[in-house]
Amino acid sequence: MKNIFISDKELNNYGETNTFSDKADSLLSHQKENWGLVEKNFRNLDSVKIKNIDFDNFKFKIQFNPSRITSTSAKVDKKSIENRVCFLCKDNLPETQKGIKYQDDYVILINPFPVFKQHLTISHIQHIPQKIDSTFKDMLQLSFDLKDNFFVFYNGPKCGASAPDHFHFQAGQKKSTPIENFYNGLLLNYGEEVYTNNITKIYSVNHSITKFIFFKSSDKNELVNLFNTILNVIKIQQGLASEPMINIFTFFDNSQWKVFLYLREKHRPKQYFANDDTQLLISPASVDLAGLCVTPREDDFNRVTKEDLKDICSQVLMNTDKFEKIIRNISKYLSDKNEKVRF
Ligand SMILES: [Zn+2]
Fold first, then answer.
1. CA terminus-to-terminus distance, the chain
2. 77 CA distance to ligand 1 centroid (A)?
3. Which of 307, 330, 327, 329 is nearest to 319 (CA)?
4. What's the Rg (C-alpha) of the chain?
């Protein structure tokens, strides 16, 4: 059977192995040395073009990144997925791709088409579908284990995951997205408290360009319970049998997890499908919603405006009425539950 795992001993030739952040750094050095595609795509990131588009208390960083074309334009309908070879199954990984064993069920890989100077894909060792309810606890543990240098994100199966059939998270270099810099100001100016106790606080943020539910907590189990409760309230309100359309972005700092839950209306905006000069190949997922918007074509990078971004976000994020209704329901559900617990 193919062995994709790299040992600590081998990693030690490339750097430290004390923490998972260290190991990931060492793995990146190993892959740059042994896999030309990784060397080239990470080197190209040094000269990537960036432009900023400012909003009140938020900004978008637009990144022109040609290596992302496959992911941005990935066909994720059932038929296309069935007809392609899964690029996350271990038997299909290139010979040169190696990974770090994580817990019993995951492997930490270098993403060969990076958006960040350090960019990981953490995939399940089994070919099982993208689905967050039973794995959110793993996401929190992962963001804790990678806390020195990484945030962790999850794209729902219909919200930007290019392998919706194979469970995976991704991780990127901390302090490389606008949301990490701007969230305190967003909470202060646009945040409303949804739930609070001594350990965990939940807010909603409803801003003209971005909307999300924000959690902070130092208690992993409580956070997992509250998160799954909220996901369930959304699922019931929307009459869904499967997971609501979501993206999740999380990191651990100052002894707390911070979680951003983005509720989606659709996967791709109309500009993506346009056949004329209004076409913009922008397919938003967690990273784009966190303010780092990737355009794989230079023409789109040059053309995209503040108005385009506003329009795209208003299409792909849940509309304000629905969002506020969901927040009211969550708030009511959690306060009712609290009352019951108390008496
Ligand atoms: Zn697979």
1. 57
2. 15
3. 327
4. 20
